[in-house]
Amino acid sequence: MTALTLDQLAAHHDLTPLTATTTCSDPQAAYQGLRDRWGHVAPVELEPGIPAWLLLGYHEICQAARDERLFSRDPNNWRLYAQGSVPPDSNLGPMMFPRDNAYFSDGDRHRRLRAPLDDGLERIDRQRLGHRIRAACAEQISLFAGRGEADLVGDYAAVVPMLSVCGFFGISTDQGRELRDGLIALFGSGEDSQEGNRAFERILSRAMQDHRERPAADLTTAFLEHPNLTNDFEIVQSIVLMISAGYETTTSWIAQALRLMLTDRRFAGDLRGGRLGIDDALDEVLWRDPPMANMPARYALADCEIAGRPIQQGDALILGFGAANNDPRIRPESGWHESGNRSHLAWSVGPHTCPASRQARVITRIAVDTALNELQDVALAVDESEIGLTPSPWTRCPASLPVRFTPHRS
């Protein structure tokens, strides 16, 4: 294995775009192709001319994610960003440029900015959360139940999480739908990502001002009053983090779980007395097709080495959760069971482990269970091979799940 730096590899090799791992029909084949060529740390291209390391191994991700003294979450430590090599209008900006929240912070600052998120999540009553999710699911299903057909992504999986998460912050249903459009653009990292991000922040700024004038028993008011958030930039960016992370990952988890249960005989049989159920499907999705397939980013604070690759100070490292969960060094070819096994990296590891995995599971489980039980004889209306993916270098969410079912009588 040649010990070339990232810059040297980018200059002399045709690097694989990161999107090749998220827009293909078989992501594990794509990840394995990178492993075969490069090992467990592969050079990839985030967008033309912008290289990064993609960590493909379970142990390599744990190494980078746990050591914040050597690997930073602060994009100001990204060499290409600091040098101006990444243009200000880059489509990567909404996901990789600095923000005043916990996601993009390290050490004491990270702990200060994370505390309001942890405190806010602790305030959410699980029973009330369940009631809210069931109400949101029932409301959405009522809009299409009489038609006998629907898109379980656009009509359901992409709506229920936004209504649920926005409810935590006292944001209206109409504003929640506007936020959803902005988030789709933000996570897509396409040409509309910057405008989607601006629209998203404008809505949240208005909501924050409304709550400042009329406080309420919700998380927006809790963030406004939290002593750890010292200015409006930190408040709005903390809300951005909580809503965007909660929405995108949960939408993808619901959609992938519904796809699995509607297409895989092991799970499709559950409605007819089969052996595997919803919790099995949820766990399998987290292992095999996690909500965030590739997570940006860590930035090396000093020259070092990972799996024989020379990492230079300022290099960007992308955490390939979808690859690492299927790392052949930890996944034997036979005898492996995902059900009940929570040692996956779907929620990351280390100081930046997702704080809302419990709430996400409540939302996802109720949403999947409600759809499968309320829609009688529900089945895919297209062949499984026709299910496309929403374009993104980070996620692998089905773009649509067209289904047919017995219409509800009015």
TrEMBL record:
InterPro entries assigned: Cyt_P450_B (IPR002397), Cyt_P450_sf (IPR036396)
The residues that cross the membrane are: none
Q: Which Gene3D superfamilies would you find in this protein's record? A: Cytochrome P450
- Similarity section: Belongs to the cytochrome P450 family.
Question: Which PANTHER family does this chain map to?
Answer: CYTOCHROME P450 YJIB-RELATED, P450, PUTATIVE (EUROFUNG)-RELATED
Name the UniProt record assigns to this protein? Cytochrome P450
